[in-house]
Task: inverse folding
């Protein structure tokens, strides 16, 4: 039952992320009166047609991961179809797609073609560069907006942890905790005689105490308390430039009590969480250990399971952080991603003309290959860590 809940939560979170990301592209395209042929959640075939507003077909696809907005004129074959027929109708099919958190890209491969005669006036490529730029940018903006709203809502809807501690999921063999006798399932009760009411502060204390003995009281899985003294050893961790104290455990947060707060305080906490997210991202880049902090589908599923296990507002907070990650990821200047499209538009503005269809095809093929390599790397990393 736990795994089923995790799977359903994962699908729900992913669908929400995709929907709001795509909604950004969709609303801006509609605002500029571009023709949107399809708004789809999921990938592949067959597709379930939900309804149509006379212009846009709203569909669900067979594979409940990913999604796309198909805007007329966004792909090379659309432009050639317009030139051949003069109708401006898009070519048949869905266009090229790349599965994963790529885009609206979660993900449709968007390809810009040379301007050709007979281009659909309601098509993407016939519009001024500022309109195309804003339509592409809207996806990441909506992802950031969803992340902010989710994090600002946690305290008001579910409450924020008032007292927390840590439970040991795994004691790493040969580490300080293992040598001192800590075991899987132990829960921290106190440190140096002080009750633990903030799991984050407990971690901070451990990290600041390399070489200094710490006196813990832990509660075993059977409910018995015992005293253990552990001396953290110095070591490096991802996201931290300097060595910190470690006792070599894999902890799991445990919420002892939580309290609901008002809207104003909830928004303030959400703002602080968003700021912390960006600060952590900056530390990761500054440390030069970005590859150690990259996670793929397996890592996300594991984190989803942990969020569901903790309950309360943790899944909503997790959704918010994932949405921020999706927004940032899509701004990377890699062809196929939104950031790649924005970079090509910047190049177009400088050159005052678009790349040729052949050049564009080559650029996007290279971008797709790069993302495939990244996907293989994170899958290998996830499976290696999971093992």
Result:
């Amino acid at each position: 039952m736990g795994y089923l809940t995790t799977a359903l939560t994962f699908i729900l979170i992913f669908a929400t992320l995709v929907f709001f990301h795509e909604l950004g592209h969709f609303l801006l395209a509609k605002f500029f009166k571009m023709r949107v042929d399809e708004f789809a959640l999921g990938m592949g075939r067959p597709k379930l047609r939900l309804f149509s507003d006379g212009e846009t077909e709203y569909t669900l696809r067979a594979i409940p991961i990913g999604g796309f907005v198909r805007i007329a004129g966004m792909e090379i074959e659309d432009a050639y179809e317009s030139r051949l027929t003069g109708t401006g109708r898009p070519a048949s099919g869905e266009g090229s797609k790349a599965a994963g958190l790529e885009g609206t890209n979660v993900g449709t491969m968007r390809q810009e073609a040379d301007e050709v005669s007979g281009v659909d006036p309601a098509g993407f490529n016939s519009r001024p560069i500022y309109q195309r730029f804003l339509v592409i940018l809207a996806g990441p903006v909506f992802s950031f907006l969803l992340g902010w709203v989710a994090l600002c809502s946690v305290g008001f809807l579910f409450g924020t942890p008032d007292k927390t501690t840590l439970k040991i999921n795994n004691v790493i063999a040969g580490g300080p905790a293992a040598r001192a006798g800590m075991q899987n399932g132990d829960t921290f009760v106190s440190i140096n005689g002080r009750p633990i009411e903030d799991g984050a502060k407990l971690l901070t204390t451990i990290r600041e105490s390399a070489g200094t003995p710490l006196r813990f009281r832990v509660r075993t899985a059977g409910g018995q308390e015992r005293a253990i003294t552990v001396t953290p050893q110095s070591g490096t961790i991802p996201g931290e430039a300097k060595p910190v104290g470690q006792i070599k455990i894999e902890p799991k947060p445990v919420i002892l009590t939580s309290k609901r707060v008002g809207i104003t305080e909830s928004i303030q906490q959400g703002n602080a969480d968003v700021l912390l997210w960006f600060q952590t991202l900056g530390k990761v880049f500054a440390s030069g250990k970005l590859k150690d902090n990259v996670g793929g589908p397996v890592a996300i599923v594991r984190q989803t399971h942990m969020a569901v296990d903790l309950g309360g507002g943790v899944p909503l907070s997790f959704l918010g952080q994932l949405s921020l990650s999706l927004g940032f990821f899509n701004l990377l200047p890699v062809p196929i991603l939104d950031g790649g499209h924005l970079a090509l538009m910047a190049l177009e503005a400088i050159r005052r003309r678009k790349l040729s269809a052949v050049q564009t095809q080559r650029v996007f093929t290279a971008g797709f290959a790069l993302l495939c390599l990244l996907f293989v790397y994170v899958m290998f990393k996830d499976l290696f860590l999971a093992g």
Remarks:
- Residues 2-154+323-386 form one domain.
